[in-house]
Amino acid sequence: MPADLLDQALKDRLLASREASLVVSRPAPAPALLHLSKAVQAVSTGPEAQRMVADLARLNVAFVGLDAEFRYGDLADPDTDDDWQDPLTLQPLLIGLVAMVTDPDGRGLVPVRYALDVRRPETHAGLAGVLRQPYLFVAHHLKSELFALAALGLPWPRAVFCTWLAAQQIALGRHHARYVDPSPVDDEAAIGADRAARVDRVGATSLLAQLRLYGIGYPFAGNKDAMRRRFMGLADDAPLTDADREYVTADAYGAAALYLPQKLALAERGLAHHYDTVELPGALALMEIERVGVTVDPRKLRLAYEAATRAVAAYEERLAPYGFREEAGRVMVGSHAERMKVLRRLGLLPLFATRRAAARHSFRKELLKQHQDAHEVIRLLYLHGKYSAVTRDRLFQGEYLCADGRVRPSINPLGADSGRPSFRRPNLVGIGKVLRPIVVPDTEEDELAELDFVAQEVFIAADHFGDPVLLADCNKGDPYCEMIRQFCPGDLTPGDDALDDRALADRLGADRFKALRGRMKILMLATIYGMGDRSIAAQAGVTLEGARHLRRQFFTRYKGLREGILRAQRELLDRGYTQTVTGLRRHRGRSGALSSWEKKWAVNAPIQGGSACILKLLLPRLAAYLHRHGGRLVLPIFDAVLIQYPRHARQEMLRGVEVLMVEAMRELYPGTRPRVDVTAGAPSSWNKNNCADSIERFLADPEFKP
After folding, report:
1. I need a surface site. Which of 82, 309, 429, 609 has the fewest CB within 10 A?
2. CA 409, CA 417: separation in Å to the nearest integer?
């Protein structure tokens, strides 16, 4: 066999070549952009879906608008128009894709529109092929689109943008009820203002309102409400019309057209960094929490309803001797006039005086809760209102349960003007500590634990407002213990101030320590929430002069906090907004001098907003960590998280979550040394202080507290 298989002449030519020759293949013909952009491309078969994938692969796609149309439940179900639907019954009908393609002639972006009939399974593979591409997908209400994709068993895109979330962030704070009606005549009018503010907010952040705001035309001339009603009744075998396709692609186009103007608006307002690194990742984690749901025990739901019903009757019986009128066998404790009469006679009415209400007195639950320690009748009124709401809550009447036995609260990542998420249908986060055991793990092999930042708001206030003394008090231990040492010397004996936190608590005794620590917490929260001296006196159990003395002591020690508060109020007046450490802004809804209410939230918004930023920074990291180890996030609870994990991995998981929580807070507030409390002693349910039988004990005793 010859040693060299190459022909000598060929070998000589190759060696003499200085450069390799390029072999140019014929490029695949690009689709006619003008043709694709003129009409909606109907996709209802497998070949049409694959042609869509191939066409887009040969175009210079900048980003893609996405919209889904769907219905809930069976067409024969009479409840399909209800305001709540089981997400598991969601049935996607059409998917609209609008690819914004760079015009090769330099004339900007050209929309290429596709309407996919996803009732036809043969279209799903092509849609999945598009979703796997490294395109940015833009939707106006991203959660709806992602849930529709999940219902089809399709992957969520890697890169997304939600124009509704951006609109909410840009307008945060402008649509508060106080800007609708600064002085409602009574509590009912105040509730009406709250509703009106929500309507204003929804309207201002809707797709059509946002398109008008940025001067963008909406390409569908038909009636949107009529189209929604049509889709609610669209049968699986009903043919689609041109109007159906135009409608679904019009919403997808609207979202895509908003992308660049909103990105610019976020950048111009200093909000882009927060949106990209905190708000959107946090919102995606919250969407996944909502999609997966929370497992509840139906038996405990029924027991909780029974316990709340009995408690309400017991509170009414105990309130009757205070002079509330009885009518048709019921004690009229909910009557505004009756409350005025009773509280005036007891000398308690000044606690409920308010500048907000023209009637000058308000008995809203926030005020009742704030003053419940001032007198037994106020405490009973608060509890009566709290558990009356439970008896009316559809959750405890057996509703909101999905087919898999879970509940899926609707979560708005920016539902509160502070930037905190809100929960509704049901508000599972706000059910009250005694009723928490309705939430249980998914399986007997899983456990639940709650991990809670210790005094997080105090840490944030110290770092944000730049008070080195308060920050040092936080970092050395429980800040409220240090306040006891500083402000309550008369309650201590010589040498007590040298004891560590645990020894000090033991020295004072459980009841005395709880009372003093509670008083210090009230003092701190009074500063954060703008409470007056009268409220401090009522809640802390001291005289009015005693409350004033405590406040003077507080600001003498924490001068930096006082200066920071005044600075925050000046900045709100000058700039029209407050700002968190990540750049999230809460805006005023009017100009002119600050109202007393605005002065309060000038202080509170950066603190609660900062807490929300920590949570949203944490959630995606926590979800990824738990998923890797067979666990999951169940609920975020403001400054805490409820997690589920396999029983065999308890210690490893709890320690890992604690580390991630501390890291997230220190990333935003590097001067802090945060600590985390872990409640995992009764992991068979969500509970307070490891009291898994709190519902049963509350049923037996309406005064029970876990």
Report:
1. 82
2. 19
Name the E strands within 534-649.
577-579, 585-587, 632-637, 640-646
- 286 SS3 class: helix
Is the per-residue pLDDT at 321 higher than 50?
A: yes
CA distance 606 to 598: 13
The residue that leads in pLDDT, 538 or 560, is 560
Helix (H) or strand (E) holding 110: strand 109-117
* pLDDT tens column, 10-29: 556 545 555 544 444 445 55
pTM: 0.90
Give just the sign of the alpha carbon dihedral 343, 344, 349, 355.
Answer: positive
How much is the mean pLDDT over the chain?
Answer: 90
Structure-block tokens of residue 157: 């895109």
pLDDT value for 34: 63
Distance CA 527, CA 543 (A): 18
Write down the CATH number for the domain with range 33-269.
Answer: 3.30.420.10
Query: Domain map of the chain by residue range?
Result: 33-269, 297-400, 457-604
261's tokens? 């103007």
CA 114 to chain centre: 33
Question: 273 falls in which pLDDT band (50, 70, 90)?
Answer: very high
> What's the pLDDT at 23?
47
* Per-residue pLDDT at 185 exceeds 80: no
Short-list 30, 45, 46, CA closest to 112? 30
Q: Is 509 exposed, middle or buried (0-12, 13-18, 19+ CB in 10 A)?
A: exposed
C-alpha closest to that of 678 among 657, 652, 694, 706: 657
Q: Per-residue pLDDT for 1 more than 60?
A: no
Residues 6 or more apart whose Cβ sits within 8 Å of residue 487:
520, 523, 550, 553, 554, 557
Distance from C-alpha of 212 to C-alpha of 254, rounded to nearest angstrom = 11
| Predicted confidence (pLDDT) at residue 538 exceeds the cutoff of 80 | no
Could you tell me the sign of the dihedral formed by the alpha carbons of 210, 71, 160, 275, in that order?
Answer: positive
For domain 457-604, give the CATH superfamily.
5' to 3' exonuclease, C-terminal subdomain (1.10.150.20)
Residue 580's nearest CA partner among 453, 419, 415 is 419
Roughly how many angstroms between the first and final C-alpha of the chain, as a whole number?
92
Query: How many angstroms separate the CA atoms of 693 and 303, rounded?
Result: 11
